[in-house]
Design brief:
Blueprint (H helix, E strand, L loop, with lengths): L6 H11 L3 H19 L7 H12 L4 H12 L8 E9 L3 E9 L2 H14 L3 E3 L8 E9 L5 H11 L3 E5 L2 E6 L4 H10 L6 E8 L3 E3 L2 H15 L4 E6 L1 E3 L1 H8 L1
Parallel strand pairs: 8-10
Antiparallel strand pairs: 1-2, 1-3, 2-9, 4-6, 4-7, 5-6
Helix pairs in contact: 2-3, 2-4, 6-7
Length: 249
């Protein structure tokens, strides 16, 4: 249950790119609204809302903003009605890509996402074409440095499924329905949690060892991720450390 993952690196890279606070807030607030609409406005009785509420707080979204989003979701306040639409496709090199959106205009979003794939060397795929290559998981980031054996014991006691290292930090994987429970158990055991979220994890990763190829893939991922309706972008590639360093430079 140990190893290396660039999940945190990718996440931090996205965080730097999405530095505009208003844009980050808007994406998270949509997730809060949809979670409230689908499961009710009580975070203690709605696991999805509880996860989104925590995610919003981690991003420093004000409490009153979150509460208004919940009320829009439950119908107590008026607002746009968003629906979740997922797109599947391929990046250059045959990399599988899944795009999760929340939109109030399916036709507009569909046309724009397809255009972004085509414009950046990718292609859209039929539903189900690549989804089978990913598993839905809960992901908890624990900041290090920590004693790995001691943390592993806490993870197992809390009901965590897997643990990997990423630099000094650790990533704990859970079943989606157990994310909140495992997070609470870790915090009760004195483990500090940096973030937690639901994610898709690729079953197998394709190694990208050339800078040019990595740039093409990341250009597509970045273009899609910048779209206002896009909540998450997942892909099954892994950039070699030396290539990643060269790209960051």
């Amino acid at each position: 249950m140990s190893g290396h993952s660039k999940w945190a690196t990718t996440k931090h890279r996205k965080g730097a790119k999405d530095s505009a606070r208003a844009k980050v807030f808007a994406k998270i607030i949509r997730q809060v609204e949809v979670a409230a609409r689908e499961g009710g406005g009580d975070p203690s009785a709605n696991a999805s809302l509880r996860t989104m509420f925590q995610k919003a707080r981690e991003a420093s979204v004000p409490i009153d903003t979150i509460e208004r989003a919940i009320k829009r979701g439950t119908g107590e306040l008026e607002g746009a009605r968003y629906e979740a639409v997922t797109y599947e496709g391929y990046a250059p090199g045959g990399i599988a890509v899944i795009v999760e959106t929340l939109t109030d205009n399916r036709n507009r979003t569909s046309a724009e996402i397809k255009h972004l794939f085509s414009k950046n060397g990718g292609s859209i795929a039929e539903p189900g074409a690549v989804a089978w290559q990913f598993d839905r998981k809960g992901m908890i980031e624990v900041p290090g440095p920590l004693d790995e054996d001691q943390l592993l014991e806490s993870v197992l006691d809390a009901g965590g499924e897997n643990m990997t290292s990423s630099g000094e930090n650790f990533l704990v994987t859970t079943e989606p329905t157990e994310l909140a429970m495992v997070r609470d158990a870790l915090e009760a055991a004195g483990v500090k949690v940096a973030s937690s979220d639901l994610t898709l994890v690729a079953q197998n990763l394709i190694d990208v060892a050339e800078v040019g190829e990595a740039k093409k893939i990341l250009r597509l991922i970045d273009a899609i991720d910048d779209h206002d309706d896009v909540q998450n972008v997942y892909a099954n590639f892994d950039v070699a450390d030396d290539v990643l360093s060269e790209l960051e430079e």
